[in-house]
Amino acid sequence: MSPPVLVAFVAGPAGPWQIDRCTTVVGEPLPRAERLAVLEGPQPAPADATWALRGSTSNPRYTNRAELNALGAVQPGLGRPQARCAALIPIRKTEAWWALAQDERRAILEETSRHIAIGMEYLPAVARRLHHSRELGEPFDFLTWFEYAPEHAAAFEELVARLRATAEWGFVDREVDLRLSQ
């Protein structure tokens, strides 16, 4: 496992990603911004940033060995030249979610909702990386980052719709969906 990476998603007037759409799914919205930069490492946000969300990569918390092996065999890396579309979906779960034991959360996540299995169906077309934010005192628990080629946009929409229809999403009390392009 690679060491954790601190990542800041910084919205404002500059950045390589154009924010095409920002939809509040549930809870409070994020302020409007035009561009997004993804900064890795302990870099300060620029003074003209509209907002910045921070998260860190971490060990896979809800996957078993077979799932890790399967993901490792097909999960593409980020930054592929053809992946000119992206999505940042910050999510906060309810206190009821966090009151559950980890094995109970795992049961909802995979045994009931099939979160990992559903995501596997869209690999390698959609690259993804999960960032944990709860322990950093951020306003969201998870920052989910996806990259994909324009021809896979419909598949990505299907993926998101399927995940939002699961029992797991009953525990989401704040979600914002940003769609981006280069």
Short description:
By secondary structure, this protein is an alpha+beta fold. The chain has helices spanning 65-74, 95-99, 102-112, 115-120, 153-164; strands at residues 6-12, 17-26, 35-40, 51-56, 85-93, 127-132, 142-148, 172-181. The chain has a domain at 55-181: 2-Layer Sandwich (Alpha-Beta Plaits), CATH 3.30.70.3420.
Characterization of this structure:
This protein has helices at 65-74, 95-99, 102-112, 115-120, 153-164; strands at residues 6-12, 17-26, 35-40, 51-56, 85-93, 127-132, 142-148, 172-181. The protein has a domain at 55-181: Alpha-Beta Plaits (2-Layer Sandwich), CATH 3.30.70. Strands 4-1-3-2-8-5-7-6 form an eight-stranded antiparallel beta sheet. The chain is an alpha+beta fold and 182 residues long. It contains five helices and eight strands.
